[in-house]
UniProtKB/TrEMBL annotation, chain A:
Key words of the record: Germination, Lipoprotein, Membrane, Palmitate, Signal
UniProt protein name: Putative spore germination protein YfkR
Membrane spanning residue stretches: none
All copies of domain Spore germination GerAC-like C-terminal, residue ranges: 210-374
Any Pfam family: Spore_GerAC_N
Gene from which this protein is expressed: yfkR
PANTHER family from the UniProt entry: SPORE GERMINATION PROTEIN B3 (PTHR35789)
Amino acid sequence: MRRLTPIVVLLLCLLPVAGCWDRREVNDMALVIAMAMDKEPNGQYRLSVQVPLVSSLGSTSGGGGGTSGDKSYYVDSAVGKTIREANNIIQSRMSRQLYYSHHRMIVIGEQLAKEGMSDVLDIVARFPENRLTAYLVMTKGKGIELLNAQPQFERFSGEAMRELVKMEAIAVSLKDVAQMLTTPGVDAFLPIIDAVDSHPKGKSKEVEFMGIGLFRGDKLVYMAKSQAIKGLRWFQRTFTPFSVVVSLNDKERLTVYFSKGKADLKPVIKKGRIHYDITVFATSVVVENMTSLDLDQKKNIALIENKLKKEVEVSVKDTLNLMQKYRTDTIGLGIILARQFPKEWRDTYRKNWNDHLPDITFQIHSKVVVQDVGQTTKNITKEEGGRE
Amino acid sequence: MCSYFLLMVDRLCKQQAHCISFQQITHNTVSFPVAGDEMEFKKKSKTKELLETIDTCSLLELEGIPLFPSLDDNIEVLEKLFSDCSDFVIREFRQRNSERAAAIFVDGLIDTKEVNQALQSLMVLEDGDEDIRVIEERLLPVSQIDRVSDYKELLQAVLSGDTGILVDGNVEALTLGIRGAEKRSVNEPEGEAVVRGPREGFIENIRTNTSMLRRKLRTPRLKMKSLVVGRETNTNIVVAFLEGIADPQVVDEVSRRISNIDIDAVLESGYIEELIQDNVYSPFPQLMYSERPDTVAASLLEGRVAIFVDGTPMVLLAPATFWMMLQASEDYFERFQMTTLLRWLRYLFMVIALVTPALYVAITTYHQQMLPTTLLLSVAAAREAIPFPAIVEALIMEIAFEALREAGIRLPKTVGQAVSILGALVVGQAAVQAGIVSAPMVIVVSLTGIASFTIPHFNVAISLRMLRFPLMIAASILGIYGILVGVLLILGHMANLRSFGVPYLSPLAPMSIGDMKDVLVRVPWSFMEKRPSFLGIQNARKMNAGFSNKVQQRGGQAGTTSGGKSDGEGKA
């Protein structure tokens, strides 16, 4: 024991020797909040990073906070043959070390999306600081413009986009994209976010959720408006609530909010043709009633439910038509087929599934329940007896 | 001077029977340049040796030196012993119609009025007697009286506050236990205040303290072994335990370790604690102390041993375990749900007190990805203008906090306020505004400070506070890995630690599931049927199983005894 003690002490002394090599203080770091990747016309990549200017974030120390009046962030971008090269160019003019662990938003520019995004996504997955939970969005035009937008509510557009994607759009993380790109039988899609002027036009530019970009492979094929693609929401693992307007006739309209929903797909193969039985289950809430309909009455509820059924079926049909038109399987019909008919999938469809898509037939059913009509049954400001 | 020696030698020769110890002394005499025959030389050297050694010796060395039959001899020895002791009084008097006598006492330690009364009965009221036994049995109306025959016993008693009575012609003396030293009144214990529970705390007087314990445990099974430690202080020590509950081996071990102590002074129970603990270098206290009689009584009932030390209100409890130091006496007086929650709060804050600064340093210098983005931005904004790395900042603040705390304790209460204002203003605000330390660091330090104050026992709190610093340094070098290494080392040390043979972390490690009821939670009293088993107690059962079952039934005791409606409910 006596002899062991100095050896143990020496060994313990080795521990601190191994330390400190990756020490970095917070004030030597440039925290990347969001990054955008674009493709330049000459084929090179442009990397843009949004970095908060920590000193102008309004710390308690000294006379910080607002006096500078300018933006609380800084966007820099550089062009390189690879993303990493662009990163190194940015780093070479930045006094602080770029730190990617906190970026939660990756913006893909339109050009890059069209030419294929899987090349640039490699570094995002490979570099350990990056997180696979970061959300991926695309934009019309250049990604850097989204980073330069200054929304009113959040300090950085990256933060605003993240909240928006989680709340309004169908959130797609890097992990999801990776899975969608590598799994046969499903194609990737990305939410589209654009920088728009607020109304009335002010200093700020808000970010707005515009629609869904449909990909085939890693290439963008179509940018769908959010109204046109709302049928996609039924097929997601977690349903994102949305609302629709139901027209009773030319003038009278109701707004109904779908709070829960899911879709059931049953593939059938008949004589080499693929057919899907799709049933959509939806639960809805009436949020606005501009008609004189008395929602206290069961028949009126049934009327709305019927209208909604049609609405749901149309929305699904529109989405499927879009998918067939651009030969992209955004929903993942192929996966369902593969689970049900593994042998047929492996033998016939797997190789050129996207070419089979236009030949698929569908039958769409739906079950919609109006669960709640709000606090009143009729429009309380309208006279009684307008309609039975 | 020389004639005095001769006188002494004469007297000594008359009572050879008592001189055994003196003869032992003669064996190592130094040369004595007096002419005369061998016999004369020996006699003279004996006397001189006695007086020379007496001059410097402590009480322990007086052991076995008997009292002389002659009062004058005794007085001469005492006067030599207590030369220049202005508070030592030798009151010579003549008993009524009898022998001369002397009362010896230390002024201020006795109750003068009572002693006067006692002397009155010898000098005025009754005829005296030459036999000290008769005086003890018939003449002195004093309840606490003792007969002693050697100097050590006599002086120990007198220096503790007794009054010694020496009567000419007797080789024994009487000690009258009429003590009246000034003492503090019983107050609320400041170190262990409670909201609910007894408000009395121990004081500096050991007799008062043992009486307070006796008032809690009125049983002959409460044993109090008396010991004396300290060559110069001769401090009285009482080892108290409950016979039939405490492990006799532990009691023996405690007594043995205390009686082995060889030190000049024991001024506080801390001396004893450090001299009998198992591991000298451990940062953790291996004996608990308490100034509450109820805590001590409860510990005895769990089978522990209490060590009272005269002159301090802090009573030591052994064997101690880590978890008992995280418990307050109030835990057993309040409802069990609150207590359980409070215990978990303490456990949580114990961890916070230990690792928060280290975690802050580790996360802000190595693991920034662990913080939520917005929090990291706040931290980054606050640290933007700070010139120091996080570890330096943390050390500055933690050391400043420890200094503030220390200053607050030592200063008189009126000045203490100034310290807290300075601390709050200068460290809390000015330092942040000047950009020397960051606001999150101030928060971390304050949280750590508050957390360490939630631990009921100061000595554990302070050891945890001390261990923060190595953890912080480990965190600054190796990040969270360093904290883990540090915490593992601490845990390993704690698991290795023993207090009188009882593992320090018991009952958690080694695991004793039945005893968790008083560590992880505090079960209702009716579930505490048994005493903790890890202490090696003899009689485990606290309450009758039948009784506790009754209480646990729905409706409680009423459900089984009152009959009628509630009875049916109780069985339901």
